[in-house]
Design brief:
Layout (H helix, E strand, L loop, with lengths): L2 E6 L6 E13 L4 E6 L16 E6 L7 E4 L3 E7 L14 H9 L8 H10 L7 E7 L4 E6 L7 E2 L3 E5 L9 H15 L6 H8 L17 H7 L9 E14 L2 E10 L13 E10 L2
Antiparallel strand pairs: 1-2, 1-10, 2-11, 3-4, 4-5, 5-6, 6-7, 7-8, 8-9, 11-12, 12-13
Amino acid sequence: MCLIVFDWRPHASAGALFTLAANRDEFLRRTAEPLHWWRATDDVTSPGSSPEGVLAGRDLVGGGTWLGMTRGGRFAALTNYRAPNDMRPDAPTRGTLVSRWLTGAQGLPTTPLGYLDEVARSGDLYNGFNLIVGDWARRELAWYCNRADRAPALLPEGTHGISNAVLDTPWPKLVRKRAELAELAASATQAPLTRLVEMMRDPRVAPDRELPATGIPLERERALSAAFIETPDYGTRGTTALRVSVRGAQLDVEALERSDDDGSHRIVRPGVFEREEAFTVAAG
């Protein structure tokens, strides 16, 4: 996942509590399963965990996932931190940091901040990442980056964004999409999830003068500056839109994914396959 923008309203008494739009960018050769309710055999990376009740895609190469949620109200999402000169080929896969929270692996803390504190103890073993974990029923959302000089922290109310640098780093595509989401979130009428998906499928690249310098060639930097990336070997493999709304004593969760995979690993560019899910969570 390379671009996530989200609006967080932990004090909401009605309406949207959490609204998210996210693009997953990945090499086209890397196989994965699209959004689905996990089966008992889907998570083999976390002994003692329970994958039932997890709604997420699944990485078939390294295991784990990039974004997911549960019927109990847990949520997690991850982006890689772009540091091409600081990559270890023997580092453990980062996707299991998401799946371990979602599946409730035995012995791990059960609060978002407690879990991230645990992750931070071994954060230097991994290549760079940003990790968001939440518990909607507890109204807690927390963030940690293992390449930032900051401890894990609960996130304040507001509209935020993460790409392949630390939280709210003002890369052009992040600034643009965060502003667009904030405008939609402020509207008196909730935008349909399809509108959030279309917002993220934006192929415009940034002017060279606005590009960050992350250690990759200029041509690559230019291509990756688009919200929706399309190159011969790498691109935006899927877009997820998510809304959690407060309705009395429950939370209504709506999720929509548009991806390049119909479930059989037949890649279609750009992705056209859609999956929709809706469920409720006790508000706690």
